[in-house]
Amino acid sequence: MNDEKTKAEIGRLSEEWTRAIRDRDHAALDRLIADDFTFTSERGRWGKARFIENTLRWDLLGMEFADVLIRVHGPTAVFQARVALRARLDGRDFSGESYLTDIWVDRGGGWQAIARQWSRPSA
Fold first, then answer.
1. Alpha helices in the chain (DSSP H)
2. pLDDT over 70 for what percent of the chain?
3. CA dihedral over 19, 28, 104, 115, signed as positive or negative
4. Were both Cys, which of 21, 34, 86, 101 would link to 112 (CB 3.0–4.6 Å)?
5. How confident is the model at residue 89 (pLDDT cuts 50, 70, 90)?
6. What is the CATH classification number for the domain harbouring 92?
7. Is residue 111 within 8 Å of 104, Cβ to Cβ?
8. What domain count does the chain have?
9. In this structure, are residues 31 and 52 in contact, taking their beta carbons and an 8 Å threshold?
10. Which domain holds residue 19?
């Protein structure tokens, strides 16, 4: 797969991941996220099972990517974006602007996310 096709595929998968969170689609999340996945934010770091469990608590109203940068390095792709999030978590408004970096790996059976770094801009 050439870099442009890979970039398009990673962009498509990133949108699919967002829809899976919005729709609480556990099967899609399980397919898109590698078993050795780690999520890191100002609240800590955890693995796939806890990440999926936490996403099922979200009421995701919208998640729009801007300033998207996708870089391909062989079987690894890095997706970076500014995110406009409209969401509630456990009844609390959690909307705002954030930044994310996702690392995707093609292990021969398709692309899976192995890491997500989520950060809020400093005040």
1. 3-22, 26-32, 48-55
2. 98
3. positive
4. 34
5. confident
6. 3.10.450.50
7. yes
8. 1
9. no
10. 3-119
